[in-house]
Amino acid sequence: MRHGKKINHLGRTSAHRKAMLANMACSLIEHKRINTTVAKAKALKQYVEPLITKAKTENNQTAEKGMHNRRIVFSSLRNKHAITELFSTVAEKVGDRPGGYTRIIKLGNRLGDNADMAMIELVDFNELYNAGETKKKSTRRSRRSGGAKKAEAPAPAAAPAAPEATETKTDDSEE
């Protein structure tokens, strides 16, 4: 029985697994997306997201605490170039995100051994998925006193929307 065993060992010794995850994390930080198997992608997600959180919180703290976080992340990754990239570019992009920095997209099966393949990528660096989205205000809505203000706000916005709707209907009639 596997009660309480949360780590997927990936068929490797602990030293090999740690080295492999560190190398994959450095590649993910450098290239922003990598292709691998689904099991390795899930293990990498658990490995790299706490490191990104440490890099993100470094920018909001003093220099001493920032250096401490850099050294903690360096003990896991062991690559100076990946640390520099993580604490500069990646930390700026994910600064306002409360978690969920990576995305796993399943790609199908590999031809040689029929292994499930996946692409793992950093969410904020994919321009195709983020093109239509706009930055939202991170405020919480309350149940009271919000209805009266919202009812007044859409009324002026609805007037310019009506001619656009008629234009789309004329476009449909031309087809």
UniProtKB/TrEMBL annotation:
Transmembrane segments: none annotated. It comes from the Bacteria. One of its GO terms (biological process) is translation. Residues 166-175 have a biased composition (Basic and acidic residues). Residues 137-147 have a biased composition (Basic residues). Residues 133-175 are annotated as: Disordered. Residues 153-165 have a biased composition (Low complexity). Keywords: Ribonucleoprotein, Ribosomal protein. Pfam families: Ribosomal_L17. One of its GO terms (cellular component) is cytosolic large ribosomal subunit. One of its GO terms (molecular function) is structural constituent of ribosome. NCBIfam families: L17 (TIGR00059). Belongs to the bacterial ribosomal protein bL17 family. Part of the 50S ribosomal subunit. Contacts protein L32. This is Large ribosomal subunit protein bL17.
